Amino acid sequence: MKAKRALAAAVLAGVVAVPALAQFTQQRSGFAPGQTDPIDSILARRIVMTTLGRQNDQVHDIIDGPGEAEEAAARLRLDNIGVFLLGTPEMFPEGSYIYSKELEEEDPSRVTTALPRLWENWDDFYTRSLVAAETAYRAGRAASWEELVRLTEDLEGQCESCHNEYRQNPEPIKFPPE
Question: Which residue range forms the structural domain that includes residue 73?
Fold first, then answer.
């Protein structure tokens, strides 16, 4: 059973990561080592946020499922969510607000769904990311199933609150593109 899950996870990673990698900009001219093209930042954060959403959905499927048999899987996903959230602010560098309706219609993976007020209220956004990461960490290490569920619900509220404040309502990026 575990081998099948590992294989399924590897296949999913290949289905998501390989096409996404092909979308990153190929020309690095104009960007010094360690600098990221803002368009690559946008694509990276959209991929990470989509992955976070999938991890969150899987945790909720486990919670809403038949019982506690998959508790270890829920804890692992909560750990993953916490790690992603710790790095989330670093995917929003200054200058990566690129949006227009025309660009969105042309290629939605190249425009941000973040609102300009995210950069205007940077300290709040950064703090929200760290608080949510801590909640995910605590949920993954909860002493009981009930505590895990409660903290997961708290995390969901934190994510929704941040999205309501700092994100447009995006269409998810489909991999592979149609």
Answer: 37-166
